[in-house]
Amino acid sequence: MIVDCALYRDGSRTDDDSHWRELKAKATGDDDFVWIGLHDPTPEEMHDVAEAFGLHRLAVEDAGEPHQRPKLERFGEMVFLVIKTLWYVDAEDAVETGEIAMFVGKDFVVTVRHGQGNELHTARSALEHSRQVLDHGPGGVLYAVIDRVVDEYLDVTDELVIDVDEIETSVFSADRTNDSARIYVLKREIAEVRRAVLPLREPVARLASGDIAAVPEEATPFFRDVADHLARAAETVDSLDALLSTAFDAHLAQISVQQNDDMRKISAGAALIVVPTLIAGIYGMNFRHMPELDWSFGYPFALLLMAAAAGGLWVLFKRSGWL
Amino acid sequence: MIVDCALYRDGSRTDDDSHWRELKAKATGDDDFVWIGLHDPTPEEMHDVAEAFGLHRLAVEDAGEPHQRPKLERFGEMVFLVIKTLWYVDAEDAVETGEIAMFVGKDFVVTVRHGQGNELHTARSALEHSRQVLDHGPGGVLYAVIDRVVDEYLDVTDELVIDVDEIETSVFSADRTNDSARIYVLKREIAEVRRAVLPLREPVARLASGDIAAVPEEATPFFRDVADHLARAAETVDSLDALLSTAFDAHLAQISVQQNDDMRKISAGAALIVVPTLIAGIYGMNFRHMPELDWSFGYPFALLLMAAAAGGLWVLFKRSGWL
Amino acid sequence: MIVDCALYRDGSRTDDDSHWRELKAKATGDDDFVWIGLHDPTPEEMHDVAEAFGLHRLAVEDAGEPHQRPKLERFGEMVFLVIKTLWYVDAEDAVETGEIAMFVGKDFVVTVRHGQGNELHTARSALEHSRQVLDHGPGGVLYAVIDRVVDEYLDVTDELVIDVDEIETSVFSADRTNDSARIYVLKREIAEVRRAVLPLREPVARLASGDIAAVPEEATPFFRDVADHLARAAETVDSLDALLSTAFDAHLAQISVQQNDDMRKISAGAALIVVPTLIAGIYGMNFRHMPELDWSFGYPFALLLMAAAAGGLWVLFKRSGWL
Amino acid sequence: MIVDCALYRDGSRTDDDSHWRELKAKATGDDDFVWIGLHDPTPEEMHDVAEAFGLHRLAVEDAGEPHQRPKLERFGEMVFLVIKTLWYVDAEDAVETGEIAMFVGKDFVVTVRHGQGNELHTARSALEHSRQVLDHGPGGVLYAVIDRVVDEYLDVTDELVIDVDEIETSVFSADRTNDSARIYVLKREIAEVRRAVLPLREPVARLASGDIAAVPEEATPFFRDVADHLARAAETVDSLDALLSTAFDAHLAQISVQQNDDMRKISAGAALIVVPTLIAGIYGMNFRHMPELDWSFGYPFALLLMAAAAGGLWVLFKRSGWL
Amino acid sequence: MIVDCALYRDGSRTDDDSHWRELKAKATGDDDFVWIGLHDPTPEEMHDVAEAFGLHRLAVEDAGEPHQRPKLERFGEMVFLVIKTLWYVDAEDAVETGEIAMFVGKDFVVTVRHGQGNELHTARSALEHSRQVLDHGPGGVLYAVIDRVVDEYLDVTDELVIDVDEIETSVFSADRTNDSARIYVLKREIAEVRRAVLPLREPVARLASGDIAAVPEEATPFFRDVADHLARAAETVDSLDALLSTAFDAHLAQISVQQNDDMRKISAGAALIVVPTLIAGIYGMNFRHMPELDWSFGYPFALLLMAAAAGGLWVLFKRSGWL
User: Fold this and answer.
1) How far apart are CA D179 and CA D181, in angstroms?
2) Does residue D163 register a pLDDT over 70?
3) CATH of domain C257-320
4) Are D259 and B259 within 8 A, CB to CB?
5) Per the database entry, which stretches of residues form a coiled coil (chains A, B, C, D, E) (predicted)?
6) Which of E130, E209, E220, E249 would you mutate first to test chain D, the one with the most D CBs within 10 A?
7) Per CATH, the architecture of A2-254 is what?
8) Where do the structural domains in chain A lie, given as residue ranges?
9) A119 pLDDT exceeds 70?
10) In sequence order, what are the beta bridge partners of C35?
11) What residues of E are in contact with residue C256 (Cβ under 8 Å)?
């Protein structure tokens, strides 16, 4: 589906609502360019656009199917970029991923989006209000999209920081919590984020280095800024992963400590019953000469003895921390 | 065994069914080339072909025996490539490995296949229908074979992802499952895949860099695409390996938690018996003056007392989660 | 808030107390420069200064909001540096972080500080008394600030060494201590320090390499010295992190050993009661012919037997280390 | 001890049995060279040879004492190589190490061997029958020795693979095996192998790169082949090490699972005795009115009751998998 | 304190006992040089020497205070080296560290030593008897000192190997040993050694590369030899560290196995008492018709039955390995 299409001239969007083929034909000025936005395109749409703009077969294949790896590829003057989008779904405490493929030529930008999140509409609007970026032409669009996606990476890592904090609290709480499943799931989410962030560093570094024709020299600081944000996301993610591993070890230690505590509690409890049982056994013996048996208060005395023994043990165990 | 042999001219297969030596003699045109396919060749077959095409002694030795490492070697104009093939056997949930050795010269391709899987027949057919690739001559064949093998790597990693998901479900299920053997086996399979994937990255990168004569400049994007798929396989495999390690730790935690639960259940169960035993012991004492003993309903009273004690403990333990 | 502003001429501070705009206008001499210090500036202050000195939009954005990554960026002749400050709060055994952003031009230095710690006042005073550094102009100021911040890193790592020593003592003490929470928190602090130290290495290395215009050739040994201190901090932090992991494992081992000791103590204690219970059971049997039952001292004999059995077991267990 | 010495001319060994000094004097032709083989030489022998061939002091020191690190050193035209030899002693399931030092000059080869294994005699014989290698002169000898040693590395790693398989079987067998000592020993052997294999990669890579004068350009593919075998050995060793770590974790999990099983078995067994004891306790109570006590078949009834309780519990525990 | 000072001329020490300032003045010949040795110098001594030889302020600061990182710094023609010294204190099984700072100029060497160990006197004597090294002038002194220090690293690692062997024996012995503290301490020592060894590799590599003016081209093999020894120390240390980690895991496994053995022994022991208790309970029942009670030998029969039950269980448990 073609979700938006416009002709940009002199750093701002024209009102022209024509079909994208016509817009393409009109983009004859030096700084004119067309931006076509596709979302989950059919093979036919993909094919039409590819033919019209002379996109490379391999890039079109990659753009057509989701689950690609972030990468930057140059085909002559054209740049092809795949970037993964991330967003955090609060309801499920989960990270979802989508994908954007971009073809950036001298006078056109084609963006192909897969998955639900990260619609590019707001990025486009923001861009259309920032002449400074738009002046850079298709390279400016490239920057705007990457910048927005990477900013969302930082939002996601912020959410993950909160999740790790929650797990931390749970691990070290006095409650018996079984946190291993949560830690596992979070580690999995983090691996997902890492798969989006890490392979993107090399493409962004190349864009920042200035040897990609589509990015003018004066625009490289912007890409260095993105590279820096990316490095921040990568560092956060690595550091969270390491923290979770430590949290897991701490969780294991807590389980062991609790088991130890339980074992001692159980033993102390058992002693409270076993000792009176011994006393009962003693007065159940059949010796002919057992003076206590003939006492009038022998029975209450025995019960008291049992209670005293149990009570004494109770105090003892309480003091030594076993109960 | 020679499984297939053909002469290719002007980007398509000729019908000529002659012996490979004759085909070789006919491949005189600029773009002509012969493709001979061997499968588990005898030393004699290997020797004949090596002599006819002037293959290097070391490469022939490597091609003749299986269990080589993926590698790319140049001998003058000729390129020698060893690549490991992988396929997933559903029946056994296991990854099997084979091997293909390729000699690619100016006017010939010799492929030597070891092991069962990944026959090259379908790759050859597919190639014969794609003039675009075949036009690149022996370099195109090189691409077609590598591309097919690497695509199968991705199929295998997809299956491994499913296996890891199953293990995950099993680890976190309430059932008592002993997953360590399965995790171990899967880690072993993953190590196998890694041994095929990782050493291949350097050869493919060299093919993509354009300084291998057999690969024309305009064909390098195809090899970069393969390199990208390879990177994807490597990332998946690394990430699965890390996930399995975490799953293992989680499995250990589950075992500990279950042991703890069992211990508490056992203790609670023991209390249900030990307390009535104490009561029985008390009424088994031989004191002369024990009023209960003379009651008409002393015996049912004692039984009731025992049942009440056991019942009370039951409720108590249920509430505190010990039973 | 503008916390300090001065004009430096011929390697020393002038008395001129004018507004910073006037000072800027007066800095016309070859070695004259203005140093403006901001602390948690409002967007307006930031904007004014940025406009006056022609600071780059991206750098101003980064300087305006805290939680940036340490980095060095060149915009033409100007250098922009972000550096994290660390200090140790004794009361909480915690590491706090702040941030300093610096803009260093040919004739000006703008420092923007976020957070509480590491006020730059003392650094400035120290610098004003050291003509040797001040002679290097804005580059000297750059050095002075980095040097001071990195020296504080070393102070922080010294404190962390003490914390690790304390944990070590606690882990290997005979007391039952639950050190996992403390180890976790310290690992977290260390990760914080690492996030400040590690990304700073690359900027400092670039300053030491001599290809940053603001740093004259003869000043590079000073930056190499800072790089060396930074390396020391990084090595200490890595080594503490590894030690803490080992301490954690040792803590787990201690827990296991203690559980084992407890289990044996409990079992030995149980034997002391169960064996007399058996004896009591035997003399509670109802056989007609049990000679002991008719003895005059049968009862004391039975009690003695119980005591002897318990005493014998006690000695036995003490000797074998179970009690 | 000088174990062998010969003059090689025109690619084959001469019959000349003279003293090595004379052979050296006769090696005047362009392709003539002398090969002296020493085994655990005395300092005097070492000194004589060193002086005669002008070997560098440092290299002679290294060759004279064992336990060096694999390395390649150039002294002018001469090449000095230290290589570790490995062999597997079946009787002890252990890897033994030895050492070979080689001095390779324009017209001589001096090999110094330490330790028992890997005598060079068979390597020399094999070489003397392979004119192709011998034609390359001293460089060919260098290749022949390294090739043989590295082939033995692969034999050793094959044996280690078998050992790891055995451990695997043992870990996952139902038997109670204490595999930690075996895993530890094997990890130690693997570390030994790694210390031989890994540092050799750089010297072999340099020999394969063609910038060592003693190795003619056309011989570099042979060294690349050795480098490839070395890489294979290194990969195998790394992968075995990782597998052993996983096997260790699995072993720990097995221990935990077995402990859990034991605990449940013990508890179930205890229940089989404790419940009848309660019943016996009940019929041991002294109530005046207990109808069962007066039944003719009260006693057999009670015994049956006990047996039924125990039997019922048995079935219950069997079904739930506790026994 | 100035511990030694001498003028070296033509490759040997002169007898001149003058004050170092005079010796410095006399060192006018081409190959003349002065070597001043300081030990824990006062700031004044340091200052005097620094001024006389024109040493750089930063280097003097670093030389004056201990606990620096190993490093090599060039100030014009002068080379400044910091190196950590290590020695093993047998009495405490501990590694101690000291420090040597060296200033090496065209015609002087200043060595500053901190800490107890590694006095340089014997190194100086050895050097004075080896014209070959001394001929290289100050560069030869540099080599002699580094060589000696690195040789002592190897002595220390040899001692650590012995310590690890002892721990190994202890871990796998049948005794109940708590080795975690010893392993921890040894890991800490190893970390200390690593902090001395690893950062020194880069300075030594630079000295071996031949682009440090103070080291003549023909002296580089000597530094390559040192680099090789350093690599050996680093490899040993890494390998010991990995072995200790494995030993720790094995130690944990031993603890678990012992706990399991204990648990089974305890349970078997409990059974030996609980079963006779049940029998006693049975004969303590009050049924009117219990034929055994009236037997003349009923009581001995019951005792025998108990003994037989306990004995039978004993045999059973012995056979199954529980006792």
Assistant:
1) 6
2) yes
3) 1.20.58.340
4) yes
5) none
6) E249
7) 2-Layer Sandwich (3.30)
8) 2-254, 257-320
9) no
10) C6, C109
11) 252, 255-256, 259
